[in-house]
């Protein structure tokens, strides 16, 4: 493998890992001591104060 091919492969791997790191899971601790793992950052409705999220395990 020449240097240009190796460098290109390393750059593709770096970009792939960087993009995967952008969408991190978050944990929500409930008042009854349960922990919910979300897919991305939960959103808070400014009118009602309710939190909406996508569950990391079920995708809902």
From TrEMBL:
Keyword Secreted among UniProt keywords: no
Annotated Lipoprotein YgdI/YgdR-like SH3-like domain residues: 28-56
Keywords attached to this entry: Cell membrane, Lipoprotein, Membrane, Palmitate, Signal
InterPro entries, sorted: LSM_dom_sf (IPR010920), YgdI/YgdR-like (IPR010305), YgdI/YgdR-like_SH3-like (IPR047807)
- Origin organism is Salmonella enterica
Source domain of life is: Bacteria
Q: Show which residues constitute the signal peptide.
A: 1-20
Protein's name in the database? YgdI/YgdR family lipoprotein
Which Pfam families does the UniProt entry name for this protein? DUF903
UniProt KW Metal-binding keyword = no
């Amino acid at each position: 493998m020449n240097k240009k091919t190796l460098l290109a492969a390393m750059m593709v791997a770096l970009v792939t890992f960087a993009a995967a790191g952008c969408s991190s899971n978050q944990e929500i601790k409930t008042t009854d001591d349960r922990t919910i793992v979300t897919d991305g950052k939960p959103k808070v409705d400014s009118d009602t104060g309710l939190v909406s999220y996508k569950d990391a395990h079920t995708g809902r």
